Amino acid sequence: MIPLSSRLLALIPLAVGINLAMGKFAAALSLPLFLDTVGTVLVATLAGPWAAVATGVVSQVAFTVLDGKLMWMAFLPVQLGVALYAGLAARRGAFASPWRAATAGLVLGLIAATLSWPIAFLLFGGVTAGGVTVVTTLLTALGVPLKWAVYGASLSNDLLDKCVTFLLVHVVLISLPKRLSARFPAADLARGRA
Predict the structure, then answer these.
(1) What are phi and psi of 37, to 5 degrees?
(2) Bigger pLDDT: 4 or 145?
(3) Element (H or E) spanning 184, and its range?
(4) Has residue 1 been placed in a domain?
(5) N-to-C CA span, the chain
(6) Residue 32 belongs to domain spanning
(7) Phi-psi region for residue 192, left (φ > 0), alpha (ψ -120 to 50) or beta?
(8) Cα Rg of the chain (Å, integer)
(9) Rounded to 5, what percent of the chain is helix, strand, coil?
(10) pLDDT tens digits, residue range 47-59?
(11) How far apart are CA 19 and CA 29, in angstroms?
């Protein structure tokens, strides 16, 4: 973790903006993924899990305020799980190669689905947003009971989403200029170079 600095104070709002923009983009197109944690994962790789937790909390509050739907706060545990796992995975060099990033992303997808599907099922009856609801509807139309349709939709969407998220962050990390990367020593750990 890097100490609170102007660099970190600039990074977190930028990452929140990435989360909001990518999340809105995916929702507007009803994609079967969320892309609303890209900024959180990026901060985890650059500044560690606690800065990522701050990013996740601010992002979730911002989603809630901007949409005017208090329901989004129910998914805060997912952002926290993403932040903590991404920070730990980054410390273990999960972004050293596309293969490692994709594999770590799939593990996070399993964790995120495990955290999100009970929220989606118990609090919202399986109707949440975009692509997840589309997949849930499709599965229930095929005769899958709602509980398992919500789990299947959450699992499939989260596996894809977190794999894509980790791959996007991998591309950002390997594209960082050395001068910028040197300002975030945790990036070397994430890329497996420390």
Answers:
(1) -125, 10
(2) 145
(3) none
(4) no
(5) 15
(6) 6-188
(7) left
(8) 16
(9) 80, 0, 20
(10) 999 999 999 999 9
(11) 16
User: Residue 118 is part of a domain; what is its CATH number?
Assistant: 1.10.1760.20
User: What pTM was computed for the model?
Assistant: 0.93
pLDDT per position as a tens digit, 112-148: 999 999 998 998 888 776 677 888 889 999 999 999 9
User: How many domains does the chain divide into?
Assistant: 1
CB 173 within 8 A of CB 191: yes
Q: Rounded to an integer, what distance in angstroms lies between the CA atom of residue 116 and that of residue 27?
A: 17
Mean pLDDT of the chain: 92
| pLDDT above 90: residue 30 | no
- Contact of 105 with 168, CB cutoff 8 Å: no
Closest CA to 90 of 170, 30, 148: 170
SS3 125: coil
In a domain, 193, yes or no: no
List the structure tokens of 106: 């799939």
* pLDDT at site 15: 98
Q: Which two tokens stand for residue 93?
A: 């060099």
**Domain assignment of residue 56, yes or no:** yes
pLDDT at 4: 63
